[in-house]
Each structure stands twice: as C-alpha cells, then as structure tokens.
Amino acid sequence: MRKKQFKAESKKLLDMMINSIYTHKEIFLRELISNASDAIDKLYFRSLTDDSVNMNRGDFEIRISVDKENRILQIEDNGIGMTADELENNLGVIARSGSLDFKSGISADSQDNEENAAENDVEIIGQFGVGFYSAFMVADKVTVLSKSFGSDVANLWVSEGVDGYYIEPAEKENAGTVITLYIKQDSENENYSDFLEQYRISSIVKKYSDYIRYPIKMSWETSRPKQKADDSDENSVPEYETVTEDRTLNSMVPLWRRNKKEITDEEYNSFYHEKFYDYEDPIKVIHSKTEGAATFDSLLYIPKRPSFDYYTKNYEKGLQLYSNGVLIMDKCADLLPDYFSFVKGLVDSADLSLNLSREVLQHDYQLKLIAKTIEKKIRSELLKLLEKEREKYEEFWKGFGVQIKYGLYEGYGANKDTLKDLVLFVSSAEKKLVSLQEYVGRMPEGQEKIYYACGETVEKAQMLPQAEKVSEKGYEILYLTDNVDEFAVKMLGEYNGKSFVNVAADSLDIESDEEKENLKKANEDSKATFEKMKEVLGDKVTEVRFTGALKTYAACLTSEGELSSEMAQVLNMMPDAHDIKARTALEININHPIAEMLSNLDDEKLAKYSKLLYDQARLIGGLPVEDPAEFSALISELMV
Ligand code: ADP
Asked: Whose CA is nearest to atom 13 of ligand 1?
C-alpha cells in the first residue's frame, strides 16, 4: 500500500505532537470523545428529519475499550462516520491551519532556542484544540476504521506518525467510527501505561467530558468475593472473582444545567478552554438561570485577553444556542451586541424550536428577550467587577476597552446609557485609570466641566501646553490616547450633567471674568499685528490672538468648533478621507515676554517669528512641522 504524505502544516503539528513535552497529554481523550460526540450529533440531527436513520436518541453511545496486554485503547462511536474522501480530507490536513500560520511567526524568532520552541509548542497545544492529532501524543500508531452513514463500504486509515498514512477498504457493519490507539511504551518521564488503566480513564472522562450528552461506556472489571456455597466452611479464606459490567462514565448532565454551588472553578475553566479554544482562564464566569418572560440557562465567559483575530474582520461574534440541551446554532450573533462581542458562552432555552433557521431566528421574539436579558447581565457583572475586583477589570479594559468605547460612538450614541459607566481613562491625578463617576465624584468646587487632552500617548497628551493651566487650577485631566476616544467622548456629550471639554479647544473657557476682560482689550490693541501674522500663515490658522490659558509655553494651537486636530488626523487615516482640516487658531501666551515683543518687530522679523511660533505650537501639540528645512533655517538664523 502506497503511503501518502501529510500536508506540510499537518506534518509540523504532528511532529509537535509526537515530540510533545506537553504535560497534559491526557487531553487526547477529551479531543477524541468530543469528535465522537460531534459525529453522533450529526447523525442524531439527521434522524429528526430523515426516516432512513433508524435510530432513537437512546441508541447512541461512545464506547471505550482497553486491551492492556497489547497496549490498545479504542474509542468507538455510532455517529455519522466518514467516507474514504472524508478520511483523507479530515485527517490528512489539519482543519484549523490558520492558527499554525499565526504561530509560526513567533517560533521563527526563537528557532535557535530550543527551550523557547518547546514552550511555544505547549502554547499552541493549549491554545487551539488540536483535535485528532493529539492522539499521537500517547500513541505511536493510530488507525481509524469508519463507515459513513448511508454508504455500504467502510475504510481503514492507518498512520504511524510523520512518515504518512494510507487508506484501504475494510469491513464494518454499522455506520460510525472506531479509533484505535497503540499506546507508546513507557519512558523515563511518562508512564503511558496509565492510559490503559480503567480508573485513570474514568477520571479523565469525568474531568473533561462529564457533560457529553451521550453515554460514554466502558466494560468495567471489578473483583469481588465469590458467592459462597451454602455448605462451605465459614472460616475458609475468601475467594475472589473478576466480574465485568458495563459502566457509563459520564453523568451526561451539561455543565450549565448543574447546580452552581456544586461546580468548581476548575470545571468552569476547563469547559471554557475546551469549548472556546482559549488557553487562559476567563476573567469572569457568569452562570445564571433566568425565569419569567424568557426562561433560559446561560453560561457566559469574559476572556482575559482578546484572541489574536478579535480585532480583525475574521472574528465572528456569537453565543452557542441550545434548545433543551441540543445544540441548534454554534454562533448566534443576535444574542450579543457588538460592544460585548468578546463574550463567549452559550444559551439553553426550552422556548426555542429545534429547527429554527437563521432567518426565522432574527425575528424571534423570545430570542430578542433573551438577548436583552443577557446584555443587562453582562453589563451588571462588568460593573461589579469594576467595583469589587478593580485589577481584573483594568486588565479586561486593556484588552477590550477600545471595543466598548467604539460602542459608545456607534449608533450615534444610542448605547451611551449602557456603556458610560464602564469607561475608563487615564487621568492626570495619579496617571491611573479612572471611571467617569470617580472623576466627577472628586471634582473640586468650582469645576464645572470634564477636561480632557488628546495625544498619541499619555506622555504626549500631558505635554499639551493648554493642559498646564487646567492642572494648575487643581482640575484633573483625562488623557485620551486611542483614536476612537475623542469621538466617543463627543458622542457622550456629558456625564452627570458635566460636559466634556478639550483643553485645546476654544470652548475651554478657563479664565476669570477679569482675565477675559483684559484679554479682550489686549487682543484689540494688537489687532494690526495679528492681522499681519495671519497673512503670513495663510489658511493654516483661522486667526492669531492672545490667550490666558497658557502658563510656561509661548504659543499653542487651539481648535475651533467640534473638530479637533486629533480627530482630523484620525479621519484623514480613513481610506476615503479628503484632507480634512481642523479649524485652529494660533494663540500666543499673553503672560509670556514674547507677547510684548511682537508689536515692536519690523515686518520681516514678525513674519519669521510668526512661522517659528506656529511650528513650535505644532511640535508641542504632537503634530509634525510642515516644512522642517525652513524651520531649521529660521532657528539657525536666530542663533547667529
Ligand atoms: P476538529 O474536530 O477540531 O474539526 P479534528 O482534527 O479533531 O479537528 O477532526 C477533524 C475532522 O475529522 C472533524 O472536523 C470531523 O469532520 C472528522 N472527524 C474526526 N473524528 C471523527 C469521528 N469520530 N467521526 C466522524 N468524523 C470525525
């Protein structure tokens, strides 16, 4: 029989499995059982509509058998089975190959470092359910005997690892699949024989696969004292006999249907790892039973970090949807709003019909009710986390804050009441994250507005010239560093009646009435000078004027109207942007020695100074100088 080669990626993975130092080798059983259960699901589904599937719910089972002497472990199911083509396509290539591509980038960097490479292997095994291939962690030969439902021929797939596999016709009576593992010999580090012990097998099944909805059966050998014949001698040494009985190893109750009090964190977490392919523990588990207008069980998880594809187009949001314990949809998007799209989990409701189509679901009243309830639940749990487990919440915020802020902005602020209390920004007070409630709660008397400064980083935002005067007044400033931030804040408009104001906006309004009066007068007096300066700068600025809002810096750019320079910068990054310009004024610090000097300069000098002041203001505002050559020439000229 000619051997076929595995596809390149499968080979890589296979190699990793065979040489794996992964400590949780036992998960191979979970993977094989979960495949068996999926295969049964498929046939069971079909039985609901197809009379040719002559099977009842109770006929389906997964069977584990052991032959210790020959080191053989078998997992058998009577599910849908595979044709020769399916064996070829499903087991010759790895399904989730994208995950390997992603990982290979990382391991390339650490190729010369073996330890590192091994660590990466562990990560990949943990991070992605690697499925069928994990069998090679414990077996040096694997065969798959399968008969697809409705087909009259069966096939045998055989592989001893990396050097390939072959498929040949075989005999099998009923549809389904038998996976046979030839368990490795024990090594110094690993006692593979363990996987042939019934107690060990049973405990692995209990640990990872307890909720599987079909019975996982095994013939169980127990030795017990022999029944004594009535006339035997009471004092004789008891004799033992071995009896074999069929045992069902799993309780078959789905985790979410069990009593919360009896479920351990480990059980919740391991269910999460297995079902939702995250190798880290979730930051929060929300398990609840809802009764009333909509009756359902839900088990929701908030991940610790975004998955590698979370912020890409490939990410699909959604919760698993069950009807009375039967999976009817793997990713029901309608159950989650976009701003909570990171939530993983499932909903199980008896109110939903088994054969709901996607189109019907969208209009399903029950489903809408469930979605509303779930949204409220997620929100209140996040608020609880913020209140009671601040560190965890901040970790969550680092990963998913952008998504929530985007949610504020989306839909013209329609969700602001849901989301405004979840938002955090770094503030000038301690350079720590604060909520809006905290900010408003500690506003000193006299402060009427919520001040914010924008910049690429906190450090840059902090440097904005206009921030100084606001800080001096004892007012806290929120630093907005994500592109979406200012848009979100604009959408919010206010929080608890306090409006938001950009420290670099003309609406800052921080001067006292007297200061304003003086400023007005000074501006009138210098009108002619400012007009000349404006002429030099052209349409780069709307006007030139004095300001009282600066402390040490000589000049700054202040945006007028709703569009700030930062927002304009973000908008200009969009693919269809047309050189959007924010309206900005060049403001000169009225308390700076330069203010007095300006009116005494001749026209030539004034022109040069105007350019220098404008460039300085751009630099300090985190914007690039438009003509660096001219800027540097002007500075050199000043120096000599
Ligand atoms: P995954 O289960 O994550 O898709 P696997 O490598 O575990 O990846 O399995 C690949 C595919 O092989 C499955 O998607 C399924 O189509 C098929 N398969 C595996 N085991 C069985 C089985 N016992 N019965 C039928 N099909 C199976």
From this structure: 90
